[in-house]
Amino acid sequence: MKECMVRLIYCEMLGYESSFGYIHAIKLAQQGNLLEKRVGYLAVSLFLHENHELLLLLVNTVVKDLQSTNLVEVCMALTIVSQIFPREMIPAVLPLIEDKLQHSKEIIRRKAVQALYKFYLIAPNQVQHIHDKFRKALCDRDVGVMAASLHIYLQMVKENSSGYKDLTGSFVTILKQVVGGKLPIDFNYHSVPAPWLQIQLLRILGLLGKDDPRTSELMYDVLDESLRRAEINHNITYAILFECVQTIYTIHPKSELLEKAAKCIGKFVLSSKINLKYLGLKALTYVIQQDPNLALQHQMTIIECLDHPDPIIKRETLELLYRITNGQNVIVIVQKMLDYLKQSKEEYTIISLAGKIAELAEKYAPDNEWFIQTMNAVFSVGGDVVHPDIPNNFLRLLAEGFDDGKEDEQLRLYAVQSYLALLEEEDAFYPQKFLQVMSWVLGEYSSLVTDVDTEIILTRLHRLLKKTFVTPETKAWIMAAVTKIASRTSCSKTVDKLIQEFSTSLDTCMRQYAFELKHLCEDKVLMKSLLPFDASCNDIVVDASLSFLDGFVAEGLGHGAAPYKPHHQRQEEKLSQEKALNFEPYGLSFASSMSSSGFTGRQSPTGLSFGSDTSGNSAETGHKETNSLKLDGVRKLWGKEGYLPKKENKIGKEDEPLTVPCGSLLAGHVADPPVSQSDQVATLSEEEKEKQQLASTLFVGLGSNAGVSLMGKADMATQKFKRKSKINETQNTEETPDIQNSAALALGPLLDTLPSNKEGHEGDEHTRSRKASPCSSDTVEDNLAFEKPQSLKKPGLDNKLLHSSLSSSSLFADSNIEIFHPLPSAQCESANKTLLAPSLPGELAGLPHSEVVELCQSDDLALHLCKVWTDDSLLLAVFVSNKNTSALNAVNLVFEKAEHFRILESPAYQFSVIEAQSVEHCQQCVQMDKICTQGVLSGSINYQSEMETRLEFSITLSLLDFIRPMEMTTEDFGRLWLSLSNDVKQNLKMSSQDSFSAALNTLQQKLKLHIVDIIGNEGILACQLLSSVPCLLHCRIHAGMLALWFRSPCSALPDSLLYQCQKVMEES
């Protein structure tokens, strides 16, 4: 069998399917001797994937091998676990792998750490409780175990760097030992000590030292040593130097290190080797935001790279130019990008470059004509592979316009004129998206052109409809344009001809469009009222509840029709009534504090009692399909959402050649601005003169005194196309986070019966500005104490649970604020100054809130913060105290854009005047856009005293800041439970003295859950993530274990709340 399995592996390598032998590979891993078992595990790792149905048969074998005393068997089991074990099988092996971290053999400990790293990637909440063991692995006596733990720490530091700053000293010490050659010689590569280990450590240090002077100070010496020792001319040392440069420019800057890093970049850029030149351009692109003058030192080399034969070098050079674009050099840089775009054949490059050109054109366009010509070139050269957002944003810009009405009309007029000129060519071919843009613009604004007869425009659109290359989707856009133009004309022969021609078309859609146009033309009054001029931005009232069908529904119900049930609810009821096989594994013989609970079926917990078999997570093990085991097609029927088959639509797109050159669209090239020629330039060759002239146009505006406009940073230059503020306000109020949209769509009318409070928050919009300042601050984390919340106490069900009142100290636990203090010298100077104590205004003082804590301070002012938890929002009250004896003018408070949070009002707030020795405050309402257990909201405050000063601060927000109790009845809970598909199950070990009521009391107080009902040893609780994402919890005590089962329409919310539950139960 061993030989046969080797041959099957060879067949799979050649591309032949050998699925008939998969089961024999599993049998070989289960029953063979040591050599056969090794071949069986190898075959399984190559044949199967994480979602393969046969993987379930391997669980017991892996558990048995993990408990074996044979090291080879344990190693094979750990290897297979780290390769193909899925998320739902983690609880079966997690306790055993935890024990292997204490094993006496280094290879076992190393493989155990690698398995836990895999678990952290696919299910981070299931390994949150063993972070202390990760720290032990970092300090392991074996270098291999320590190196394996760095992968986990790199991932965790990326997600939350503030939680691991205490380990900075350990990482620095390890890097010093590595650079100093203290590791065994086996880790050397071409005489370089552990290069990949150095790269991992440098990345971790860069994340830890970002915007943190105190932490960065610990790294300066070891970074200097790393740069000095990496002098061997070998590719691996170049990689180390590149990571050193990135780390130096990421952490808090130090002038000596920056100079050495700049020299290193210069060596890379000037190298004749292509790989090193690419590294130099990559590094230069990365650091250009911190040091724009560095590009001026190498401007001639960058010019030469534009004509480099290697396309990768040219692409990276264009990326660099994209970063240094401003209003003075945008024309030349965009032209270089267009030239490369015309030559490129790669789809990814076309998509990327087209998006960048469109962004630069919108931001820095010098005039309307250049903007329209550039966008026409993008649509023509990019073709149909350009991102859909590009034409959509372009049309939205034309529709919304600017604050200047005259400017709007000129832009639209030029767009119409350019498209009419393009459509005048009969044999020209244009991409479909470009034709759609033309059709929409002509339909909306063709009446602005007074020197062209409407009949001519209709004729050209009619000619487009008869082209064979025009797709049905584009024809729909053209017909819509014809209909809009026809509404503004009394009669048209072309429209009559079009109606007659397409009324008998074989295309049903075109036939329908023709009949609609015909009936609209018969009633011009109705046609004009339906299609008003330039009304694309007007709000359209849509009856999303379909209330006009209420009568039809009532009539059907009156005749005995069954009420409507969603598809997934019907599927739930059908599956719950069928007799099905139990796919859940048997209970394990060992005690596990973190194993998952097994609830068979997907019935509502309000009506049934659940079993306690151990099982994996989520809906994949909850449904049963038939009376017999069917392995065919399981992957297609079962997924993360449960039994919800998904249709796979594969739409093939035919590539069509572009026959219209870009040059014909750009009418009139802008001449290069003249440059002064000295005696030295006169002696140069013509080619060198051209390069000098190109450099003067590309790098204009990058001097030390010039206002540099860098992508990714706030640009002080006025943006050419600035949309109307009223449109932005409307869009901001209508936009909602993805997690809320998905929740609303999934729940439908179920949430309409539940109580909810929504209040709008309004704030002034101010211009956001950022200015560089040498001021720095240190990071300290303080725990907040809280006042007793009154608004979150709700009556009811208190007689079912003893001591269930809300605790003032634990209701809003784990809400830490990261505080930035100034430098010690500034603290000493300001220690003797007295500061007015800020306090909440009367309307907020009665709400649950945190203590007022200091965010940052200087000699002139201090910034304090207080969190206020209302029923439907998290309110940040920010206090600005003027410590001077004179007034402060133009104090600007700006919140940065965060990954997980969103400021509902304007992120900037301006205090026009803050009187001497007084306190002003503002309020900002925060919403969680992307679910996380903890995140950081950063910002800065600018003010003008003797000089322009800027202070930075950072606020740590927890998931619990956005969780509120959700009141509902038991019946509502049951209906909502069946409609939710994302779930997580887990068993938590309870101490012997803890009772079920005490556990529920703890969850109610610290997680802000509402207890819906308690029946015996089962309880149901509910909460919601602001503003309307519910999460339901069913808990049950059995054999000293608390079985938790979360359900929510958002897949990330149950995981995050489960982690908070684990944390709360461990603390209690």
From TrEMBL:
Q: Which Gene3D superfamilies match?
A: Leucine-rich Repeat Variant (1.25.10.10)
Q: Where is the composition biased (Polar residues)?
A: 598-620
Q: Which UniProt keywords apply?
A: Golgi apparatus, Membrane, Protein transport, Transport
Organism superkingdom: Eukaryota
Carries keyword Zinc-finger?
no
Q: Compositional bias (Basic and acidic residues) spans?
A: 758-767
Main subcellular location: membrane
Q: Which Pfam families does the entry link to?
A: Adaptin_N, AP4E_app_platf
Provide the topology term for how it sits in the membrane: Peripheral membrane protein
The protein's location, in the record's own words, is:
Endomembrane system
Where are the residues of the annotated region Disordered? 597-628, 669-689, 751-780
Q: Which PANTHER family match?
A: ADAPTIN, ALPHA/GAMMA/EPSILON (PTHR22780)
Q: What does this protein do?
A: Subunit of novel type of clathrin- or non-clathrin-associated protein coat involved in targeting proteins from the trans-Golgi network (TGN) to the endosomal-lysosomal system.
Q: How does it assemble?
A: Adaptor protein complex 4 (AP-4) is a heterotetramer composed of two large adaptins, a medium adaptin and a small adaptin.
Q: Which family does it belong to?
A: Belongs to the adaptor complexes large subunit family.
Identification of the protein by name? AP-4 complex subunit epsilon
Which organism is the protein's source? Answer: Apteryx mantelli
